[in-house]
UniProtKB/TrEMBL annotation:
Lineage of source species: Bacteria, Pseudomonadati, Pseudomonadota, Alphaproteobacteria, Hyphomicrobiales
Principal location: membrane
Keyword terms: Cell membrane, Membrane, Transmembrane, Transmembrane helix
Entry superkingdom: Bacteria
Organism name: Mesorhizobium neociceri
Keyword Lyase: no
Transmembrane segments: 21-39, 51-70, 82-103, 115-131, 138-156, 168-186, 198-221, 227-245, 257-275, 281-299
Mode of membrane association: Multi-pass membrane protein
Domain EamA: 22-155, 169-297
Protein localization: Cell membrane
GO cellular component: plasma membrane
Name of the molecule in the record: DMT family transporter
Length: 308
């Protein structure tokens, strides 16, 4: 018994579980993601969603290509079925999440869309309850329910308007974005495929789709600061953000890392309020419930994994 206990810490370190590197990668992702809504808001004020998305996917594809080239020598071959499954996970997680999120940004107040899109941790909690065997399912479920109550308060009280007074497309897109990110966060930790191998093809698919979208919209290519900001959204929040988050999940599995990731809506909401975005008291109460529930879910999952 003693011998097994002495071997466990070194095994955990070799597997990456509990590694400080996971928290470092997660913190890097959160720092980049926190700027996404603010920079996106400024670009959407003068450019269509299609163009902002094209710039993002171009910047992300460049980052993933560089990482892929740097790590290609160490990559092990994989069969066609595994490769196709990995690419599908990447397309849903990257293209689905980001396109739907920016449709939401353009269709409703950004500060509200951002909070709704970050309900993905609560969706992960719901999946754990349904598919897994959480130690405290009632507590986990109650926390998730409170989070979704907070979402309803954000939507209904964001501008003192009746429920769903804004664009139904925006609300559906924000929830769709959260669903895609929840799926990605669950699936990517279970894949042996290196992050850059599934993210690069996904980004290239995004480039192709948004290029066609831009042609349809007749969008003009931006110049100067707007071009740089668009490429930053791709290279930073989308490119390095997704890469860092994927690495963190593969190293640690989602417990302590999840707690760090749930700080994103706090930081991004603070940045948006500093830029002039406002919420009513009702929506603020909803935001507190959303953010508090996300953090509580992360702590519960972390404690459950430590107990196991």
């Amino acid at each position: 018994m003693v011998g097994n206990g002495n071997r466990a810490p070194s095994r955990r370190f070799r597997d990456g579980s509990g590694s400080p590197s996971a928290l470092v990668f997660a913190a890097g992702a959160v720092a980049l993601w926190s700027t996404n809504a603010l920079v996106g808001k400024s670009l959407l004020a003068s450019h269509p969603v299609s163009l902002v998305q094209l710039l993002q996917f171009c910047g992300a594809a460049l980052v993933f290509a560089v990482i892929h080239l740097a790590s290609r020598k160490n990559a092990a071959p994989e069969n066609a079925a595994t490769g196709a499954r990995s690419i599908a996970v990447g397309i849903i997680g990257l293209v689905g999440t980001m396109v739907l999120q920016y449709i939401a940004f353009a269709s409703m107040p950004v500060i509200e869309a951002n909070l709704v899109a970050y309900t993905w941790p609560l969706m992960v909690a719901a999946a754990v309850i349904v598919l897994g065997k959480p130690q405290r399912p009632v507590l986990l479920g109650s926390t998730a329910v409170l989070g979704f109550v907070g979402v309803a308060l954000v939507i209904s009280g964001g501008r003192g308007q009746p429920f769903l007074q804004g664009s139904i497309v925006g609300y559906l897109a924000a929830f769709g974005s959260a669903l895609c990110m929840a799926f990605y966060s669950i699936a990517v930790a279970r894949l042996a495929t290196p992050s850059e191998r599934l993210l690069l093809p996904s980004a290239l698919v995004g480039v192709g789709l948004t290029l066609l979208w831009c042609v349809h919209d007749g969008a003009a290519w931006p110049a100067g600061a707007d071009l740089l900001l668009g490429l930053y959204l791709g290279a930073g929040p989308m490119g390095l953000g997704y890469y860092f988050w994927s690495r963190a999940l593969k190293l640690e599995g989602g417990g302590k890392v999840a707690v760090v990731a749930y700080l994103t809506p706090i930081a991004s909401t603070l940045l948006l309020t500093m830029s002039g975005e406002t919420l009513t008291l009702t929506a603020i109460a909803g935001a507190v419930l959303v953010i508090g529930s996300c953090i509580a879910v992360g702590i519960e999952r972390s404690e459950a994994e430590n107990h196991a």
